[in-house]
Amino acid sequence: MIEAKGRGGRPRSEQARQAVLYAVDDLLLEVGYAALTMKGIAERAGVGRQTVYRWWSTKAEILFEASMDDAEEELAVAPSRTPLAEITSYLDALVRFLTRSPAGAGYRALLAAAQHDPAVRELIATRDVLGASASAVLDRIDPDRPADDHAADRLIGPAFFWIMSGRDPARLDTHELARSFLGSGKS
Fold first, then answer.
1. Is the pLDDT of residue 1 over 60?
2. Using an 8 Å Cβ cutoff, are 128 and 107 in contact?
3. For residues 100 and 103, what is the distance between their CA atoms, to the nearest angstrom?
4. Alpha-carbon gap, residue 174 to 57, rounded angstroms
5. Burial label, 104 (beta-carbon count in 10 A; 0-12, 13-18, 19+)
């Protein structure tokens, strides 16, 4: 069994860690964020509550870790032959992540909780997975792009707003969004 070091104390079992991360995803989809409890997560994972509390202080921390690990993988897109194809591919991945992925459901739940919970807001601010994934794509198509450029925000914004405002994702034309983004001359 692989051992990974937690915050201190005894090393944690990678098998138990994965069980907790899978459990939080499953329970989020079954009962929703508000009904998630550390006790329920521990029971679903088949570990003791002490084990869970040794590694994470809150359900938000568990959900954040589970969501961010999966998000990095789900939002990584392979290079394409043209900037348009690459941007479209990224936007398709973003929409899939936000609408169909358990990790995306976790991310959306955390964003909602952050609106009234400063601790969750601070947690989310530690890792901008959407911005990082968009920047990776933009850096490939424009390696000379300034580091302080807000192109990633402009790329993510329209699709993110569309999904987060409850609109039908099937009506979102990612190819047209990509063309508009590239046509703005600000990529």
1. no
2. no
3. 9
4. 38
5. buried
- The Cα 64–Cα 107 span in angstroms is 7
Residue type, 159: A
- Three-state SS for 148? coil
Q: Measured on CA atoms in the order 21, 6, 11, 74, is the torsion positive or negative? A: positive
Indicate whether this model's pTM tops 0.70.
yes
The torsion of the CA quartet 127, 133, 139, 142, rounded to 10 degrees, works out to -130
Convert the pLDDT of each residue in 86-123 to its tens digit: 999 999 999 999 999 999 999 999 999 999 999 999 99
Cα 97 to chain centroid distance, Å, stands at: 8
Which amino acid appears at position 40 of this protein? G
Measure the CA–CA gap between 172 and 163, rounded to whole angstroms. Answer: 9
* Tens digits of residue pLDDT in 25-40: 999 999 999 999 999 9
Q: Which helix (H) or strand (E) holds 123?
A: helix 118-125
Domains present along the chain, CATH in parentheses: 3-57 (1.10.10.60), 64-183 (1.10.357)
d(CA 46, CA 177) in angstroms, rounded, equals 45
Buried b (16+ CB within 10 A) or exposed e, 123-138: bbeeeebbeebbbebb
